[in-house]
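Quick start: read one record
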Amino acid sequence: MRIRHACYADLPAIVAIYNASIPGRQATADTEPVTVAAREAWFHDHNPARRPLLVAEDAQGLAGWLSVRSFYGRPAYAATVELGYYVAPQYQRRGVARRLLAEALAQAPGCGIKTLLAFVFAHNLPSVRLLEQFGFAIWGELPTVAEMDGRCYDLRIMGRRVAAECRS
């Protein structure tokens, strides 16, 4: 399995992997599939130098992806990013997310990133545990903020510093 920066030709597979996660109600608050056209601006917001979009691929194609995107859009948060990662169903529980996350952490300092955040449904225990294994801690929880199919879900905010602490 190879980890590399995404190219535009990967976008249909990235969207397909994302859409495959929607029915499980584990990984995204989207309730309907998204289109490639709807994701084009999101794709172009990424760049390898500051906000990478990584893909994991093998001989059969893309197995998963990880997005690093700006958090909150204000200058004071420039060194803080939000991670999102998704793995194709047939590749889940095979270490794909682990490899993507390890690569994102390795690239973070070179991208000027000091703090990583992940917003994860509290019931998504595989992601919660994976993030904890990489040194992420629970920094907050938003109870019952998501509603899907008549059920309410908690959103967990997990974070990790990758640079020295800031001066107070």
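The longest strand covers residues 137-148.
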